[in-house]
Each structure stands twice: as C-alpha cells, then as structure tokens.
From TrEMBL:
Pfam family for this entry, one: L6_membrane
Organism: Myotis davidii (David's myotis)
Compartments it resides in: Membrane
Name of the protein described by the UniProt record: Transmembrane 4 L6 family member 4
Gene Ontology CC: membrane
Length: 194
C-alpha cells in the first residue's frame, strides 16, 4: 500500500474516533444520563475537556491532513513533484506528533478520572469524591457511597474508559503515521516509486 493511501486510511479512522471521543465527553456533562442543577456537582476532570480538546479537536488537525496526503504534493518543491510529496509526508510526522500529544492529554485526564471516581452526593449529604486510589474498581459494593446522581459511578467509569481506550488507539495510529511518514519521506509516496 502506498504511504499516502495508508495515511488516508489512518485519517478516516482518526476522524471517527474523534467524533466518538467528542460525544463521550459531552455525555459526561449529564451524569447518570440526567441534567444536573448545579455545575459544581460535576467531576473536575469533565471540565478539562479531554475528549473534546485532546482526542477531539486536536486530533482533527492531523486526521484531515492525513486524508488529503495522497494527493498533496505541496505544490512541488522548486517544480519537482517528488520533492513536494516527500515534504508533505515529512510534515505529516509533525502533525502526527500533535495528534499524539492531544491523545496523550485525553489519556492522562481519563486515567486520573477513573482512578479518582466521580463526584457525587455522599452519605453525609455533602458533594465530594468518596473513593480513594481506585478502590471502587475492585469492589462494586463501594458504589453505594454515591447517592446522587443515580448510576453516576457506572456512567463516569464507562465514558472515561471509552475515552481512555480511544486515546490509546489514537496514539497508536499517530505512531503508525510517524513510521509511514518516515517511509514516505525516504521512499516517496510508494516505495519503489520515488
């Protein structure tokens, strides 16, 4: 497969993952699937927009570049089309790095949130974080510490886990594009055709 064709495939996959991450982050603003009356009752990590900024918008930059990379020759390089295609592949390495950083940001935010657990109304009628160091992950009985919003533990755990998995796939795809971009820079669009 040509390096430009590979990049196009990666770009399409990254756009799909970005849309899912964006949606998952939006859903986190509705804990337990319901609207809340006070925004201060949302988990702190929701406001860091890991899925919207990191795995969402920041990933759309490289994804859109990868989609058009097969046909991009950067207007040639001093009239030499091969040089332009190689430069376009080289620039994709930089954009893959930006995408990797965005996905890394989403990964860290999601990992912290899964570890802390959600913010909820506890038994003492105060809003806070009743779980410590991910203890609720191994003991589902601890989930009863959260009284309101209903199902907030499973809601947050599911959505932040989705964001975590998406971020891992996005980092993997951006790493593949770095290798693909290096091959495209060295060999041209198709290895054997410079």
């Amino acid at each position: 497969m040509c390096t430009g064709g590979c990049a196009k495939c990666l770009g399409g996959t990254l756009i799909l993952l970005s849309m899912i991450a964006f949606l998952a982050n939006i859903l986190l603003f509705f804990p337990g699937g319901k609207e809340i009356d006070n925004i201060n009752h949302l988990s702190q990590e929701v406001w860091f927009f890991g899925g919207i900024l990191g795995s969402g918008f920041l990933m759309l930059l490289p994804a859109n570049l990868f989609l058009d990379l097969k046909y991009n020759d950067c207007c040639g390089c001093c009239g030499n089309e091969r040089c332009g295609k190689r430069f376009a592949m080289f620039s994709s390495i930089i954009f893959a790095g930006i995408g990797f950083l965005g996905a890394g940001y989403s990964f860290v935010i999601s990992l912290i949130s899964v570890s802390h657990g959600p913010k909820c109304l506890m038994d003492n009628n105060e809003w806070g974080y009743p779980f410590h160091d991910g203890d609720y992950l191994n003991d589902k009985a601890l989930w009863s510490k959260c009284r309101e919003p209903k199902n907030v533990v499973s809601w947050n755990l599911t959505l932040f886990s989705i964001l975590l998995i998406i971020a891992v796939f996005q980092m993997l795809l951006c790493t593949i594009q770095v290798v693909n971009g290096l091959l495209g820079t060295l060999c041209g669009d198709c290895c054997g055709v410079s």
